[in-house]
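Q: I'm writing up a methods section and want to include an example of the input and output format. Could you take the sequence below and give the corresponding predicted structure tokens, formatted cleanly so I can copy it straight into the document?
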Amino acid sequence: MKGGIRVIRYLLIALLIISPCSIDAAAIDSSFEGGNGVHAASFEDPVGTFNVITECDPSPAATSWGDWFYFSLSDVDGATPVVRVNFNNTRSGGPYWTGTHSAIRPVYSYDQKTWYRLSSINSYSGDVLQFTLPMMAANTVYVAMDHPYTYSDLVADVADWDASAFCQVSALSYGGVTHSQGGRSVYYMLIEEPGYYTNRFEMVITGRSHPGEPQASHSMRGFMEWILSDAPDAVTLRRKSILHVFPMTNPDGVYAGRFRSFDSGLDGNRGWDVLGPDSATEPPETFLIHSKIAEVHAYVTVCFDLHANNYSKPRMVYDATDDNWVVSDLDAIVVALNTNDVANYLLDSAFNMVTGYNTNFRRGQIESYGYHALGIEGGLYTMESGAYPTVTQRETGGAVVIQSIIEVMENSSKINLQHTGQVSPSNKSGAFQ
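A: Here is the clean output for your methods example:
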């Protein structure tokens, strides 16, 4: 759905594929949830090629990227389809992934659950990516730029997480605003196991402001599954911390298969009003999140924002302008990451986040409330080893990053963590909405 009732674009293309099995007609479709890639399609040379043009985000032009694709091909059983994707970017300055499209290795699936990554592409030139799928073992195949994670995936996950005694899920509602621009819930999760420590470390965690960065959601899922588990380290850190989690800050963009924007066309990581929550000046999604953060910010030490980007390796970003955050803190987190990381997936260096924006989620929190912001940008395509990360490795990475941050901050002079000497049950109340 693209900001309303989505027009189904189901294009029949006369097609003869040069393969062990010829096809008289084939269909390209991206009308399903999270789909993008059939803004337009044609049958051009070379013969037997599926030609797909991605759909841009809504205006304004500053966010009119079309770098995400996720579509299906049908009537392809026994064929080896050739696919040509034209990244339809109308943004001034060219495509977002400039210089890195050649590193893309698309994924494909027959059931939208088990995904396989291509080992190579045919070519990338002039914003056109061409690749050949292996001989198809089913009539329909789904093709995506990276492993998808949809809004429906989130709804299913938060229902499972809410069943934990240590996670309380709610759909945010403030000042008459109850949903996103497209009518979807914006979820908030409170994670804690009280009764063991006082002065616990509190952190805000946000993710998936940019729909075309699904790695953020896989990392979020891995973190959530770990922190709610019976793993000894997870139990210990859950008792020492209070975590305020916003797992998907742009649900409409994810549902519609956009790359970066809200329904309004505004970048999903923008729109924070540093003067305070304001439904008149902020997008509904941002207003709801800002309102909850305004309630809890007094004891928060740091925000962690999950992204993915076009860097060849995962990296941590941070803001060095906060006087309460020193290089030694960051160095300690990097050391902890290297100690905890066993899959060579995370990072061994860090760099400053862009500080020029005071109206995005990360900088907005620094400007408004003074606590620090960290983030992960990078690793959408490759690990440090040069290989391509699996979903499992991404989930493990999400757990390791959070574990490392909490371990460092609990030992920091900024946190006065004290054991209570007593145990009390969870104060969980309410139910998933």
